[in-house]
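pasting input
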Amino acid sequence: MGAQSPAGLGVTPSDSSASPIPADHAGVTDLFAVLAYGEISAFYRLSEEATLSPTLRGKVAVARMAAAELAHFERLDAALSARGADVYAAMAPFTRALDDYHRSTDPSTWLESMVKFHVGDGIAADFYREIAGALSPDVAAVVRDVLADTGHSEFVVEEVRRAVAASRSERDRLTLWGRRLLGEAITQAQYVMAQRDELTELVLAATGDLNGIATLFEHMQSAHAERMAVLGL
Amino acid sequence: MGAQSPAGLGVTPSDSSASPIPADHAGVTDLFAVLAYGEISAFYRLSEEATLSPTLRGKVAVARMAAAELAHFERLDAALSARGADVYAAMAPFTRALDDYHRSTDPSTWLESMVKFHVGDGIAADFYREIAGALSPDVAAVVRDVLADTGHSEFVVEEVRRAVAASRSERDRLTLWGRRLLGEAITQAQYVMAQRDELTELVLAATGDLNGIATLFEHMQSAHAERMAVLGL
């Protein structure tokens, strides 16, 4: 999840002066685990989609992005071990939702793959970064580290901007694609939350209440629009 | 190319007191380039073959191996840049031979994939390490670094040993597979050398003469047999 988020979504927990969610909250293990599975799936998704790259340069760029995702996985693996959790057992409840997301948003072109990398992961990053705001500093640091931009978005932004500047139909097609990514990501995020009580509790604690969650999703949509604009979409 | 070589094949250039091949030999760029393409192909081959893994643990192990190959690619990319060469242009003459090798040795099971990783890359590593012995120290250091064992072979050895200890037919099948890998690797190595005059010259200078090359291939075969034995094959 290497995509960059527009600075500050402006969402804060309903009471930002409240104590942070304790590091031993059971949902923290779930949060690290869903992030870890996200990273390892992103590694394989990127590696697969690299076959769509028209150039060897593109393939190398994608390999670098994939390796950055793996480095994030390692950080989460260490954080889970430090909590006494086994990364594979912890990830198990989340594999289905993330696999479904990737299956339902399988890019058919190189540009779709690049937009998915940038926009899809950006949506996820916004979500997790907001939750991080309510976590204790040590836990938040892990989340922010693994969501940090890995310096590869520049490559993606240039590839996409060039293509959509040159072709109106490509732009229309990718705009629709971006909208679909947002829809699928939100569907799966809701599914993941509903799946795991501990994680639901953590998200509720982080956002304040159900209204807080609604506000978070609204802000994710505006951040998504900004990100699409950066791509020329 | 992360596989480990049995220590010392005992091949030395015909006159080991001769000065090393100068760092500005045109074949050095070719050597770095073929290694670089080998690493990037290995990255993608591993990532693809990970779908054969029966477990998520296996998938993560393979992602780690792939990321180690990419780190080696980065080292070669830097070494090529330092020589004023563009990595993509330099790799172009070698893509066909390496792609052909991978196409002709496409694993159909997880165990075949693991044997290919360990044995196939081991064969290549033996070849390049022997050449390195005749190179100037700076150049040899790059070659040895990128062929260094990345600490993942233990995982592979255990997976394969366990499977072949449990099944005689699996053992027979994988023994044949290992033999095929050796044949294909030698075919492609000869093709690569014949393709590029500068590289042929460098290999000849490193091994002494045509007899030296024959001796090198013989030693590669015994090293291969040792490596198969380690796997229980």
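fyi The domain at 26-230 of chain B is CATH 1.20.1260.10 (Ferritin).
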